Amino acid sequence: MRIGLFTDTYFPQVSGVATSIRTLREVLMARGHQVYIFTTTDPQADPVLDRQEQIYRFPSIPFVSFPERRVTVSGWVKVLLIAKRLQLDVIHTQTEFSLGVMGHLVARELKIPCLHTYHTMYEDYLHYVANGRLIKPQNVATILRTFLKHVDGVVAPSDRVLTTLRKYGIEAPIQVIPTGINLQRFQAPVDPQTLLTLREQYGYDEQTPVMLSLSRLAFEKNIKGLIDAMPEIIQAVPQAQLLIVGDGPAKASLMRQVKVMGLQAHVQFAGEIKNQFVHRYYQMANVFVSASDSETQGLTYDEAVASDLPIVVMRSEYTDELIDDPAIGVSYQKKADLVAGVTNYLKYGTNPEARKLRQAKMHAISAEVFGQRIEAYYQTCIEQRQGRQPKPRRWRLKVKRHD
After folding, report:
1. CA distances from 170 to 114, 212, 247 (A)
2. d(Cα 361, Cα 327) in Å, to the nearest integer?
3. Where are the beta strands (DSSP E) in 144-207?
4. How far is CA 75 from CA 36, 70, 78, 380, in A?
5. What does pTM read for this prediction?
6. In this structure, is the dihedral angle defined by the CA atoms of residues 49, 36, 369 and 114, taken in order, positive or negative?
7. Do 121 and 200 share a domain, yes or no?
């Protein structure tokens, strides 16, 4: 198949959506398909790499109230011409904004199937637009019903997303397909000296108990909750350290919080780390922590488990499925349970059978399984669309006989 992925967010931007799309591209190409990325311009993009990876970029500007993300401002005619030249078989949109709309228009023009993945729970992000006064949750539902009215299929990364879309009244077919992760990337062992050097970069030694938080530093990620719990964690594990990896609008506020609480000796900010080095951070830590309740698919949770790292995360529908044994991790709803879970892993680690249990869990969310399920969904949508196409009329020449 010739597949067009339409997205406003792609590398070099760092986000869970960008990671998800790149994983999808890689696994589909490994399965023999041709995959083309249609996305926004980016000042950090490498034109040579874009040509090699068949990435097409269109003029864009930073999104209002969300400047690290971009939206396309022109290029409709160029998009259509490129899509026609590539003879796309299916379009898969990954955004509800500019390139998502373009993808839908192109699919309609070319009369090919269009699928959509709903990545973001917008109700958790409304505060970014006029402090939540302009767009309300009911507006999100109305916009989505309009946007998804004519798509051939919707991919929901989790049951939580499926429930939300049904609540919004979405009538299009929906399949729950969790985003897969590249197990090889996270399971490949890193040289111990490299991990020790990384620890030393932050003043840790081999025995320092390290908690890892890795996400965009946004207010909805509730990293504040992790910092709030540090005094109790330090009381139980005096050498405990929290390393916060990522960048975003909440960083300044979080740094002030650390200073006000006098936690500078126990909390550090690593900033944004390039994707190819992230696995090293998982492997050098002792436990992964998250207080976010806005996750739609928990990619970082899966990456941590694949890296043989126990997790302590806020409870959700997704964690209820992922965490079924303490060897994998624990979920919590109260700060006391967060403290207890982290303290237990920092003091005692996990039992020797933990690795086997994590490996068994990982197969279901591997990139390979993800690719197989997406490919099957594409094929289903193609066949259903072909079945809806009117059959060509057969014209029979009638000859009037004259006896």
Report:
1. 15, 37, 34
2. 11
3. 153-156, 174-176
4. 16, 14, 5, 30
5. 0.86
6. positive
7. no
Low-confidence ranges of the chain (pLDDT < 70): 64-68, 124-136, 296, 352, 389-403
pLDDT more than 70, % of the chain: 90
Q: Are residues 189 and 333 in the same domain?
A: yes
Q: How many domains does the chain have?
A: 2
Alpha-carbon span 30 to 242, nearest angstrom: 38
Using one digit for the tens of pLDDT, what is the confidence trace for 252-288?
999 999 999 999 999 999 999 988 899 999 999 999 9
Whether residue 263 sits in one domain with residue 163: no
Q: Is the distance from CB of 11 to CB of 18 less than 8 angstroms?
A: yes
The domain in which residue 32 lies consists of 2-180+366-386
Q: How far is CA 276 from the centre of its chain?
A: 16
pLDDT tens sequence across 314-341: 998 778 878 888 888 999 999 999 999 9
3-state secondary structure 329-393: EEEECCHHHHHHHHHHHHHHCCCCCHHHHHHHHHHHHEHHHHHHHHHHHHHHHHHHHHHHCCCCC
330 Cβ contact partners less than 8 Å away, ≥ 6 residues apart: 311, 312, 323, 337, 341
Answer whether 245's CB lies under 8 Å from 217's CB.
no
- Give the list of residues 6+ apart from residue 222 with CB closer than 8 angstroms, or none: 291, 292, 293, 294, 314
370 Cβ contact list (under 8 Å, min separation 6): 23, 24, 27, 177, 178, 179, 180
- Which tokens belong to 401? 């006989």
Residue 128 is part of a domain; what is its CATH number?
3.40.50.2000
Q: How far apart are CA 143 and CA 149, in angstroms?
A: 10
Q: Are 355 and 381 in the same domain?
A: no
Does 230 share its domain with 308?
yes
In a domain? residue 403:
no
